[in-house]
Amino acid sequence: MSDPITPEEAAEALRLIDASRAAFRAAVGAKRGYQHLWIWGAVWATQCLYIQLAPIVHAWVPNSLCVAGIIGSLLVGRNQARAFRAPRDRRFFAALAAIIGFGVFVWPFIFLGHHPLSEQGASQTLFAYVSLIAMQCYVLAGIWFDNHLLWVGSLVSVLIVVGYVFFIAWFWWWMALFAGGTLIASGFYIRHSWK
Amino acid sequence: MNPDSLDPVIHQPIRLRIMAALCQLGAREQVDFTFLKSSLGLTDGNLGAHLSTLAEQEYVALEKTFVERKPKTYVAATATGRRAFATHVAALQSILKPQ
């Protein structure tokens, strides 16, 4: 610049930058993806508590909760897309499709001889299996876009495996508290970290 | 860092605030013009004029599109803009450091 600026002007410019960053982060924080974590944490926790506490478990209840979660996520995503967007990454969606496709439609047939979604006798196994596939998707999204999701996906995956292997008798309580609860808590953390 | 590295285009206070905000986003993220305007408390004309100046320097990229049949403008800091902003901030900090 032709006119050198004084230290006071430099300090004022840096204050302006900090204030602008803080204001923008607060505005962005209200639009970030933590709502998805709240939605799915609440869905998981409610599903697990229902299965644990209901005298008779009707499959349509957890399934309906899952559909409600999908609708909620779509609505939140639509709202976020109005404020922010990133170019669609076809490689990411292809990788996501590979994880879900192989996890749900290929490996169970080859290695287990049956499809886990039709297995009625081991609901804990089914729930843990599908939940781990969902967490693999979080890990993938974390590697691709945002470290927060990598840590959330990894942590919840470990918690699911620990609950399944060591605490199968309390599996539904465990999943409600540590899987659903961790997703909800992670949502609060991400929201806080963006302020 | 040399104080001569200060960028006169970025140093203007409103453009400084715009760049500070945009550089908070991820490298591939774009923000809606209206959201940016309300976040920074600017008017349409004011923000538009300063974004044009930044776009001329290729510090920001503007993309006009339609969402649900309504015109929308998305704004993002370019790699050039991010580098220029980082250099500018470092130059400001160097002025405050004792020689």
Strand % of chain A is: under 5%
Element-by-element helix/strand order of chain B: HHEHHEEH
How many helices of chain A does DSSP assign? 7
- Counting helices, strands and paired strands, the structural category of chain A is mainly alpha
N- and C-termini, Cα separation of chain A: 33 Å
Radius of gyration of chain B over all CA atoms, rounded = 14 Å
Strand coverage percent of chain B: 15-25%
Name the chain pair with the biggest interface and residue counts per chain. Answer: A-B, 30 and 30 residues
What is the terminal separation of chain B in angstroms?
11 Å
Structure description:
The complex is a heterodimer of chains A (195) and B (99). Chain A has 195 residues and is mainly α. Chain A has helices spanning 7-29, 34-53, 60-83, 90-112, 123-144, 147-166, 171-193; one strand at 84-85. Chain A is elongated, with a radius of gyration of 21 Å. With 99 residues, chain B is an alpha+beta fold. In chain B, 54% of the residues lie in helices and 19% in strands. Chain B has five helices and three strands. A three-stranded antiparallel beta sheet of chain B has the order 1-3-2. The termini of chain B are close together. The interface between A and B is medium-sized, with 30 and 30 residues.
Offer a few descriptive terms.
heterodimer; A: 195 residues; mainly alpha; 7 helices; elongated; B: 99 residues; alpha+beta; 3-stranded antiparallel sheet; 5 helices; 3 strands; 54% helix
Give the secondary structure arrangement, pairings included.
The complex is a heterodimer of chains A (195) and B (99).
Chain A: H1 7-29, H2 34-53, H3 60-83, E1 84-85, H4 90-112, H5 123-144, H6 147-166, H7 171-193
Helix pairs in contact in A: 2-3, 2-7, 4-5, 5-6, 6-7
Chain B: H1 8-11, H2 13-22, E1 30-32, H3 33-40, H4 44-56, E2 60-67, E3 70-77, H5 79-96
Antiparallel strand pairs in B: 1-3, 2-3
Give a brief outline of the structure.
The complex is a heterodimer of chains A (195) and B (99). With 195 residues, chain A is mainly α.
